[in-house]
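Mods, move this if it's the wrong board.
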Amino acid sequence: MKLLITGASGLLGINLAMEAMRDHEVVGVDRGKLKSAPFQVIRTNFFNRNAFVPALDSTRPDWVINCAALTNLDECEKHPGQAKILNTDLPRELAAACAERNIRFIHLSTDAVFDGIKEGAYTEEDGPNPQSLYAQTKLEGEHAVQEFYPQAAIVRVNFFGWSLNGRRSLAEFFFNNLSEGKNVNGFTDVVFCPLWVSDLSRILIAMLDKNLRGLYHAVGSQAINKYQFGLEVARRFGLQENLVSPLSVEMSSLTAKRSHNLWLSIHKLSTDLGREIPSFSTGLDGFYTQFQQGYPQKIRSYQH
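Not the wrong board. Structure tokens:
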């Protein structure tokens, strides 16, 4: 099968491409950050209308996974126009184009669509209530995909891993600062379900193999707070745990509002895939093994 990945230089995009290459032909669509990737790369301006249509027609993929997005919450607050284009408008155009060409389509959304006031885990049946511009534009992207391609899969995620610039994931944030002996804060009142990006990549490919459609939560099977996350990263890499300080997100200097509870249920996904969803601890082991094997340096060599 031929898989086209939009946002191929992003944290998920590059790791998904590396995973999918094992068994499939991969084409990445990128804004120009990749120079020597081990898969075909098409460069385009994501802010143009119908930016992806020429790539679809020239490559004729069987599958498309849309990883393109403006994901920095505070940057979305500063640049609402860009957030709308990348998180809402482009998913709409891509969904319509894939539907017209009968191309199987997965669109990536976010756990941040929930307000975080529920006790316990959010299911796919719970109503979203976005608290930031990022979350709002991502939810509008979900609605656009549902409208223009009802047979598509929409997947809400939260993941960590190694990125091209080494600064895209929370795990990298803790690793980079702790490695330099710097003090960092970890939020004690933000609970989430982090999933290793390589595990997520395998899940997305399995969803295409099984022709899953509709809305799914694809996050890790463990709910932890971000302070605990930082401590676990420190322990796994043998770094100083006492450099990680507990802090309430309400005391931070972040611009965009963060939800306190982003614990998502993965029961639907696990049932429909017929497999267990990996935990954060096993994913952290994989993240550490990649570090030992020089994987971060390998993928960084692909960028300009």
